[in-house]
Amino acid sequence: MDFRLGEWIVRPQRRIIEHGDTSVHVKPKPMSVLQCLAAAEGAPVSRNELFDKVWPGAEVADETLTRCIVELRKAFGDTARDSRVIETIPKLGFRLALPVAPMEPEPREADRPMPEKQQSTRGLRRDPWRVSRLSIAAVLVLGVLLYFAGMRQWFSGDTVPAVPEMQPSVAVLPFVNLSSDPTDRFFSLGISEEILNALAATNRVPVIARSSSFRFSSEARDVREIGRLLNVSHVLEGSVRRADGEVRIAAQLVDTETGLHVWAGAYQREWSDVLQLQAEITREVVDEISLVLGVPAATPAVGLTRGELIATRRTQNVQAYEQYLAGAQVLESPDPIPREQALGYFERAIALDENYADAWAAKGRAILLLGTMHRGSPNIPADMYPDAIASLRKALELDPSHEFAMAWLGLALIMNDFKWGEGLQLLKQAAEINPNNASLLARYGIWLKRLKREGSEGLLQRAFRLDPFGWLPTLIRSSQLQQEGRLLDAATVLETTLIGNRDGYAQNSATAFMNLGAAAFGAQDAQTREARLEAAEAQIYRARKRAHPVDLNLDVMEMFVAFLRDGTPVPWDAILERAKKERLDGLFLYALVYPWEDENLMVEALDLAVEQRLYGVNALFGSKPPMLPEAEWRRLREITGVAEFQATR
């Protein structure tokens, strides 16, 4: 909402500060800083608070905040020595010296009274540019909502997440690699993740997800600061050193309020005993944290003891384990080409130990990511998902309690086989086995919401509590703002993912997609629209640096930039021909809402999307698009099983 600051008018959505006939444009981050100061209503706001609210979860230097303050002071004609607007509070932060008063929003153009002559012709003339632009906006909005459906309560205010109440909880930081060989980083990260997973699987205390806790390092930040940012009572940190055929692992549990160590352990073994060493450390850490926090260990499903559950998925083959660790780390890349290399690691691990349940499960997940869920891969889902399902079923055959394989099998059945009920049941069982897996809870909650089933809100709230700085929660927060019609804010929130990985493919392609939606539907003036289009162009350019040489998704987004800028037609005939051989993730959504002139072409696009098992089929759970004939709508709902599934509610 716009507000007055003394004699100035501040318009956050347009990023403008007005004074009389003069207006000054400011950058997004300085405007976010100003909004945080205004929300405090004259009270001091510390530097740490500003870092948390404007750059949540990111490593930001003091100089960055200082530059924002300098830009704001320049816009107000203010100075540090003679602070009439923004005061510096020594050793604390900043405050606004002028009163803040909210302003009533200006009426939209559509709400203003129209001249009589203009009223008389309203509805008689049709502007094809405006209709087409709004249709494309609907595509973009629907696309992101279906990709990243969100919750209503986690994101409030402008761009500041609500902070949940503190409770006994643990964050496992990435163990520091002290070895001379940098490739040992796979092992140091692997043991951190193994302990994290064991804690999540065997204790009732919340454990922060990898995607949030692995953003921090005890070397780079004070543990008390990490505890505050992650809202946890304890942090587990450690180090790994491998040399001369031996490995030494040290671990410490730290109270984040006092910064004191409440437990520490050190272990040294021959490298050949590393699997036993890892199991020993994991068991002891689990026991010690249970004692320190005064919580009992959870009773595992299927009757296994805690130690048996920890050990049941390990291979006894060290080489297979090393291949698995390397693949697991590579698979976390946001870029398509490195991610594809992960599959080879898992296949080599299986070749070394064909009974390695974790490797089979990871292989299934890798195939799903490459063929279905992540943009950037040219693979058609229909060509790949049967192998993914077979690998995940093999993992469950080896370990019936493997909730990771159970969850990803459920996702595969939902997205690729249209087995909605069976897939949801597997996700539910996996969540019951491991209620501390943030990624699992988030995906289960999202699909409950998409398939119009109850129970999603509680799952999503817990998932976000366990993964406050993860990629998935940021996408969901952004889509929620979009649902509220705040497309510019949604794009700004999504742009925060670029802080930690400016050149990542996934971050740039998703943010470009959101900026196109903001340009088409959220911009109130030509200047704002052009700024969003320029941002989208820059993000597409950066995504191409990490993309395959041929990327249909990026090509289509570039076509939309041209369409929104000067009305250049989108060549759907050529796009559909390419889409028969190259994956176009949004094809199903484009087919549903684009204003096709040829109805047969629209039906062809829908049939191709269903045949290829492209993401977005869950749009059939919504309302029928006006452009789609009723008979075609019924046919699609029947062949995908949507009609039957909804009838069983």
Question: How would you explain this protein's 3D organization?
Answer:
The protein is an alpha+beta fold. It has four domains: about 5-100, Winged helix-like DNA-binding domain superfamily/Winged helix DNA-binding domain (Arc Repressor Mutant, subunit A), CATH 1.10.10; about 130-165 and about 470-570, no CATH class; about 165-310, Rossmann fold (3-Layer(aba) Sandwich); about 570-649, no CATH class. A five-stranded antiparallel β-sheet has the order 4-3-2-1-8, with no helix packed on it. Strands 11, 12, 13, 14 and 15 form a five-stranded mixed β-sheet that branches. It has a three-stranded antiparallel β-sheet with strand order 5-7-6. A hairpin with a 3-residue loop joins strand 6 and strand 7. Mean pLDDT is about 80; it is low at about 105-165 and about 300-305.
- Shape descriptor reads globular
- Mean of residue pLDDT? 79
* Unreliable spans: 107-166, 298-307
Portion of residues in beta strands equals 5-15%
Terminal residue distance:
41 Å
Under CATH, the topology of the largest domain is which? Rossmann fold
Please state the CA-atom Rg, rounded to the nearest Å.
26 Å
Number of helices, where a helix is a run of at least 4 consecutive DSSP H or I residues: 29
Q: Biggest β-sheet: count, sense, barrel? A: 5 strands, antiparallel
Structural class: alpha+beta
Q: Helix fraction?
A: 55-70%
Number of domains: 4
How many strand units? 15
Corresponding CATH architecture of the largest domain: 3-Layer(aba) Sandwich
Give the full name of the CATH homologous superfamily of the largest domain: TolB, N-terminal domain
- CATH class of the largest domain equals Alpha Beta
